[in-house]
Design brief:
By secondary structure, the chain is α/β, with parallel strands linked by helices. Helix content is about 45%, strand content about 15%. It is globular.
Amino acid sequence: MEANQRIARIAAHLQLSNLQMEESSTLRLAECRAKGGSPGFKVAILGAAGGIGQPLAMLMKMNPLVSVLHLYDVVNSPGVTADLSHMDTGAVVRGFLGQQQLESALTGMDLVIIPAGVPRKPGMTRDDLFNINAGIVKTLCEGVAKSCPNAIVNLISNPVNSTVPIAAEVFKKAGTYDPKRLLGVTTLDVVRANTFVAEVLGLDPREVNVPVVGGHAGVTILPLLSQVKPPSSFTPEETEYLTNRIQNGGTEVVEAKAGAGSATLSMAYAAVKFADACLRGLRGDAGIVECAFVASQVTELPFFATKVRLGRTGAEEVFQLGPLNEYERVGLEKAKTELAGSIQKGVAFINK
């Protein structure tokens, strides 16, 4: 009997069809380890078959804090799920295809990561993406409100400056809005800033920390080079060069890929870095601080990216900007002007 069960368990992972064996030893693929593997958190990725979604899903499958990983998309999610399910890491992977399975994908999740949407192409701004991605984010957030209203949401879909306000309005209409649990992911701006500053200073990027505030597009991206750690000074030329390169990092990749996509690999890396911080916060770790685009009272705008302290309920503390130099004060005003329009565009999309 024990041998039969072992054979059935192996066969169930090799065959997609149900096995016709004795009832006592039958194990279908869907039932193997159905309660999850290692202790940890349940994470859903919405848009898991896309350019960001696939490497993001692979990296989350490798994260020891993840016990169950749900992969949702409108195309190709069964294939991505099958591929990743063969990795010998603790997280159990399940795939969900199409809007009729969205509710199942989201039920019981602790963290929902949303990279869904169309990518930028050469010549496109993030606002060119708005009409397509706004509708996608609206639909997915309605699913979150219904199936896992207490989950922390990491929103990647561009334009983040508008999609985060869209998500907030959807949650408000559903009566589930908790501003601490809705986080626009701007980590790629920080990752780029750390890398580019490290190049100029001749340091290891892992030793550099650059706060990046404002938003997640063009001039709304404001690196605070005066607050770099380790403390460093920059010439006016270096400041201008670094600020422009950080603000236009996405365009740099779009143009280099020449129509073949946008920043997918570095975005997936940054998204996992932020998601891991959220999971460590959920676990109760102390002192978890990252930049994110959140509901904020730091400026007169309703949303703004600054450092936040992550905990069991999401962004538990939103930090002030700290001292700015003249260059940064001028940049802040430019960022706020641009950001105000993007936020209003998102709010208007839901309330039209």
